[in-house]
Design brief:
- With about 375 residues, this protein is α+β, with helices and mostly antiparallel strands.
- Helix content is about 30%, strand content about 25%.
- The chain contains nine helices and 13 strands.
- The protein has a five-stranded antiparallel β-sheet.
- Strand 6 and strand 7 form a beta hairpin.
- Helix 1 crosses helix 2.
- It is elongated and about 85 Å long.
- It starts with a strand and ends with a helix.
Length: about 375
């Protein structure tokens, strides 16, 4: 067993394990730790506890020190500098005519790296932009392309329910949300009704899906025949899942059809066909763009490359947009190396052709 504490770096982000040896640290304290990105300031959310060695990735990094008031003030100054950095970066993007939307900026605690988060429809060649920004800020510049769900997480906002967005209030990571979940909950497949601020299916569909699955198990399907408390047979026309009620149309003795509502424990299901949730090809084609099964690029995709010891132990290094790191974008050194290789291949080919020419000329003579 290993003694660890859980540290979080973002307001809504994953919790990472660190070694607290040599310090008396309580929940809520600010600590300075060494990460893959550099020195960072984080908040302790999990106090000292014992975890198995299999749940961490060795070596477990140690806490450098408990943050002082000066450290906290320095972090606040960085947040102010980030706002100014965003303004400058937006101007540079406009000057270079790049089709990208800047979402935010972030300084590491030691100011050795400045990260810019952006969204774009496709690939963006931002090498000249990076050089321009490096000449202004005099530090290492990193541009990171994120998805629309991460954009909503960073910017925040209010959902159609009137509450703060789930992703920016408590969700530390994204989970896949499917159209089938909306159908399970009986929602109309209207993009305006089931999509969030990011334009993807609302995260709350996943949160409530298990509850609706459990409640639907007790209910008949539409079209099933039930026996009412009066002993009559009726066909289920509609359901109220949350209230556990069935809505039927009963024909009276006067041949008048009445709409009646019964609690599920008041009726007997005569023939239960079983409830099958299926998404048709037409529905899938129409709403395919709303589905997004990608994980957060702020936590799992290496864009928050602080440490491998997060408490879910599922970090995944992919999709980084650093200089010369993503989507075929290479730095000047890589370009020069490629040119040297091409030139070398060209010289070899010319030399080979020259030998063949001399050989053929000797034969002719």
């Amino acid at each position: 067993m290993v003694t660890v504490i859980g540290v979080r770096f973002r307001n809504v982000g994953k919790i990472y394990y660190f070694d607290p040896t040599g310090f008396e640290i309580n929940v809520g304290d600010k600590v300075i730790v060494e990460t893959a990105r550099g020195v960072e300031l984080g908040t302790v959310l999990l106090g000292e506890r014992e975890v198995s060695e299999e749940s961490i990735v060795s070596p477990l990094k140690k806490v450098e020190r408990v943050a002082s008031e000066e450290d906290v003030e320095h972090a606040e100054e960085n947040r102010k500098k980030e706002k100014e950095a965003c303004k400058i970066c937006k101007e540079k993007i406009a000057n270079h005519g790049l089709e990208m939307k800047l979402v935010g900026a972030e300084y590491t605690f030691d100011n050795k790296k400045l990260l810019f988060y952006f969204t774009a429809d496709g690939r963006v060649d931002f090498r000249e932009l990076v050089k321009d920004l490096a000449s202004v800020f005099r530090t290492r510049i990193e541009l990171r392309q994120i998805g629309v769900r991460d954009e909503a997480k960073i910017l925040g906002g209010l959902g159609i329910c009137g509450r703060e967005l789930c992703c920016s209030s408590y969700l530390s990571d994204f989970v896949p949300v499917s159209i089938k979940m909306a159908k399970e909950q009986g929602l109309p497949l209207n993009p305006m009704k089931i999509s969030g601020n990011c334009g993807r299916l609302m995260c709350c569909l996943k949160n409530e899906n298990e509850t609706y699955k459990y409640l639907n198990e007790n209910l008949p399907s539409k079209g099933d025949i039930i026996i009412t408390p009066t002993g009559r047979e009726a066909k289920v026309e509609d359901l109220n899942v949350l209230r556990q009620q069935v809505i039927v149309v009963v024909e009276t003795e006067d041949d008048i059809k009445e709409r009646q509502i019964y609690n599920i424990d008041e009726v007997t299901v005569k023939n239960r066909r079983g409830r099958v949730i299926e998404v048709t090809d037409e529905e899938e084609a129409e709403l395919r763009e709303l589905e997004d099964d990608s994980a957060s690029s702020l936590n799992d995709d290496g864009s928050d490359e602080r440490d491998n010891n997060d408490n879910s132990n599922e970090r995944d290094k992919k999709g980084q947009s650093d200089v010369g790191d993503k989507k075929g974008q290479s730095d000047i050194r890589d370009n020069n190396n490629s040119k040297d290789k091409r030139n070398k291949r060209g010289r070899n080919k010319r030399g080979h052709n020259k030998k063949r020419f001399n050989k053929n000329r000797d034969k002719g003579e």
